[in-house]
TrEMBL record:
Domain X8 residues, every copy: 30-113
Membrane topology: Lipid-anchor; GPI-anchor
Subcellular location: Cell membrane
This protein's UniProt keywords: Glycoprotein, GPI-anchor, Lipoprotein, Membrane, Signal
Protein known as: X8 domain-containing protein
Signal sequence segment: 1-27
Native organism: Stylosanthes scabra
Major localization listed first in the record, in broad terms: membrane
A Pfam family that the UniProt record links to this protein: X8
Amino acid sequence: MAKVAALLSLIFLFCITSSMNVIKVNGQKTWCVAKPSSDQATLLSNINYACSQVDCRIMQKGCPCSSPESLINRASIAMNLYYQSRGRNHWNCDFRASGLVVVTDPSYGNCIYA
């Protein structure tokens, strides 16, 4: 009986911790953006990493998200592409604590965040 209780406790704990990993805010969609306090080296590293994992062509010159060309803007786009493609889990927006999950759509003009 004690083994069954211990097993049920472990299953319950697994279910609780598993459900906490996916970010859902009142059923709303979430996006990942760069924290405004991030330094340039971190932002550049985030762009390089994210774009090595996902298609970042949307940021190329002449594409919808090519302007403005600020590093924080480009990092936010790349980080969000990565975050969305990996299932919107909080750990996919960490980027060494330089990512921020938001519930307000950061899209602007013709640049639509996925």
